[in-house]
Structure formats: structure tokens, C-alpha cells
Amino acid sequence: MINVTINNQSVHVPEETTILQAARKINIRIPTLCHMENREPIGACRVCVVEVEGARTLLAACSTPVSEGMVIHTHSTQARMARRNVVELLLSEHDGNCQTCDRGTDCELRALAEEMGITDLPYEGVKITPHIDDSTPGLVRDNAKCIKCRRCVTVCNEIQGVGALFPQGRGFDTVIGPAFTRDLAEVACVQCGQCAAVCPVGAITEKNNIQDVWAAIENPDIHVVVQTAPAIRAALGEEFGYEPGTRVTGQMTAALRRLGFDSVFDTNFSADLTIMEEGTELLTRLKKALVDKEDVALPMFTSCSPGWINFAEFYFPQFLPNISTCKSPQQMFGAVAKSYYAQKIEVDPKNMIVVAVMPCTAKKYEAARPEMNANGVQDVDYVLTTRELAKMIKEAGLDFRSLPDEEMDAPLGLSSGAADIFANTGGVMEAALRTAYEIVTAKELPVENLHVTPVAGLEGIKEASLIITDTIHDWNFLEGVELKVAVAHGLGNTRRLLEYIKANGCPYHFVEIMTCPGGCIGGGGQPRFTDDSVRLKRIAGIYAEDESKPLRKSHENPDIQKLYKEFLGVPLGEKSHHLLHTHYAPKQQTCPGE
Q: Is 34 annotated in the active site?
């Protein structure tokens, strides 16, 4: 252990601890812009400089390890003035347009300027020529707002392993973006939005669909349906001052109703539907492999996360046959709403708009995919992020915290706790096992409180296995089979898992992949700033939502049972195949000039 003194307070920390980490241990805040949790510090922004007695210059707290007896002053006059000077220089080059910027009061640079008491700029910096990249359905880049902190580069390359963003050029001429200064639509960007989630300013944001949704709501000839993803209910409250993980399901429902949506439904309903379809698909593949001895693509991968689908299409097309043919819950909901529900209320699908509220920017891309049109029209018309929904609520003048708890509408609003946990890494796997095990054994999954704990938590790659016994009816071929599963979240972890499978063969039967760290609770459209402490609180909130419900297994949802009885027939049947399933194809990565 190392003994150091920070602002006259003694602290004992392990070797290799940085000044920033040591200060945080005793609740001393040192401002940062480029620093990211659990990543190698790059010391690029110099906002975190501190004064160390005996040192010739100020030192970057994020990248300087402590040493025995070190005496540190984090807010001395010299340190404060240096930080202020750095922020003033950043502001002089930053074409922020604060009056209209998407980030507004959420901007970290603006918050730092206010904290440091900056009221005017002593420098008249040169600003770069703006370039707005709105080439993708999910994201918008504005290079004039970029402060070159490189957080987006870190998350895209080191955490997600995608490599769509890089620093190019040197000094003032440095540009952060795709290779050869191309637009995002021209490179292998998976639209995950983690860059937008970590950007401290408005240089990368989600593409805004708020005005499109307002226009639909205000059109008397259109029936506007809204669906809300599982992860929203444990994160939306953060935009209104609630602690991360606070469940606001009822207030969210009330807000959506007051915004003017004609029907307020739940993506959780179609998450239960996904389990029925995907679970049946898994059991069907296992039967073909074990009984019919067919060459079946195993393991089967989940297909709920559109960023993961993009990633596979770009980088691992050989695994596309392994991906479940099920559409995501978002798209399943749209297909059912514009068929089953449209028939019930006698509305032409062409006169129905389906709006999805999602934690994810890739969902905007997914909704626009040409294959997502089961009823001759788009399954889902517009996607709002959690942040966009919060803006709509504020724009409408609603006092969110005073809203009552309300129930979602029928028949697409009832869901099980298994659907809620789709929001968490490991949740889709656990939900599937709850149903699949009970189908083949007529017994409840033999784990405490229905939780498959080995696949929960924030470890990057997780494994579990379960020996199937006491099978019933047509499932005797699974008697004694050790079902092996794996879970990966974050595309960097996904790449490692897929490379391992390529090199060593696959020991698994079923694999869940989530694009974003922590799963959907850490999606690119969630309230900023999401670190592991926030992820864990949201995860806990989602599990609490699951445990609070009388229904905790997808196959027990009576409205799902009714949907099959009245409309779909059976899982993997002809109608569900048409409405709820799709296939994916490899994507070409182009080079300049092609």
C-alpha cells in the first residue's frame, strides 16, 4: 500500500493507483473530459491536472500513478488556473451553438465552464469548417462540436471492437471520425450509439425523431401506437431527478397517455412472444441435431440486439445461419400491432403508426431495414431513445414526478417478469430457460427464485450449464443432456467469444449476445453518463420489477396464449413465420473509390 496526502487528507491505496483514483477514494472530485472507467488513461484533455509538491510541472491526475509520500493539491491556484485555461482554449475552438445544441444543460464542457466561473473567452480561436454527417438512421455527427477528447474512439475500438472511429491528422487539423473522413454509412458502423453515450458534448447524438412523432400524434387520421422497451422503466426517471434504477413504469405509462398516443402498449408483451418463438426454435434445432441427425446450425444465437446483427453481418457472416430467425421484440410488436391489433380495432395498417421507445440507437436502423415490413408497411415507423422521450415529456409541460401510476392498455400491454429482464445482460437467456425447461419437464427451472445467477452480472463472457432430467412427452431425447449456454455483452467481448468458437469449436447450445455493456440498460440512447455503478443500479431495478410480478414466465402470459389461440396458431407456425421471422445477409465493407 502507498501512503499519500491529498488536500491535507491521508489516503492509503495500492501500488499503480492513479492520483485520480486515489482522490475519488476520499470523495475529492477532479474534473476530467477524456478519462473513461476501466480504460488505459490517455491524458489527452489535460483538464485533470493537479499540483504535486516537488514536481516541476502540473501532472495529469488520470495517468499519473501515486508514489510513497506524495503530497497532492488538486485545487491549488496553479491547478485551477491551468484547468481554466485549458477549458477556455477548448471553448475558443468549439463551435457549440449552445442555444440550439442537442446537449443543452447536459453538456459536460458547458458544465465545466460554469463550474470554473468562465463568463467570457480571452481567446479568439479558429473554428474548423462544419460537416454534419446524418448519413445513418441512428446517429448524427457534427465535427465542429468535437473537442477531440477521444472517448468515442476508446469506446468504439477498445470496448466495442468495431473500429469505425479514429483520430486522423495532427494538432489543430486532427479530425475524429471514420477512415478517410468518410461518413458513418460508408464504413462498418453498427449504429450501437455507445459513441453518443460517452461524448461529453454534442458532437455525436442520436438522430432526432421527436417532430415526426408529434406530427403523427396530431394527425386525426392516424392511430398512433407506442411500445416501451424493458430497459426504459429503470432509466427514464434519471432524466427527472430520480436515482438510477428507480422503476417508473406507471408514471411512464401516464406520461405517454398524456402526450396523446392512442394506445399505450409494452414491448415486454412481444418479449414474451419472442421467448415462445425463440425457445421453440431452439428446441426444434436440438431435436433435428440429436434425433434426426441433421446438420443444424448450433449454437443458436439470440437475435434481439440489432447492433449485434449488424456486427455479425459485417465481421462474422459465417455465423449468420446460427442466429435465430426471430425478429427482435420491437419488430415483432410492430408486426402484431399492424395485423392482429389493427384487425381488432378495424384500422387499416396504412393508417397506423407504431412508435417504439428504446434504449438503443441501433433500433432506429433496425426499424428502417427493408425486410421489416410483414404487413406491406414498415413494422415500426419511428424509434425514440429514452433521452428523446424525456425531451417530449418536458416539451409537453408534464410534471413527471407528480404523475400517477397507470396501467398499460390491452391486449398488448400485459407481460411477465421474464420479459422485463430482457433489459439486462443474461436476461434473454434466463427468460428462455425458464420457459424451455418447463416445456420439456413440466417442472419449474430448478434455480433459486428463477434466477440463473451464473449468467447475471457484468463479467464480459459468462457460461452456465444445466442437466435436463425427467423429460415428458416428445422431449425424451433431451433426457440427461447437459444444456450448455453462454452470454456475452459488449461487442469487444462478443468478438473474443466468436474468435474462440472459430478456433476451438463450440461447446454451447445457446448463446445470448447483447451489443452494449450491461445489455440494454447500458444502451446508446439511455440517460448519460452510464458507468458500471449506474449499470448495476439499473440491473437491480429490472430484477426488482421481475420479482414484483405475479407472472414470471413468458408462456404463462394469458394474452400471449390468447394471441396464439385467436391469431397465430402455434409457435413457428405459418402465420408466425411470416410475421415474426426474418433472415440476414452478409454486408460488404467497401474501400475508398469503390
A: no
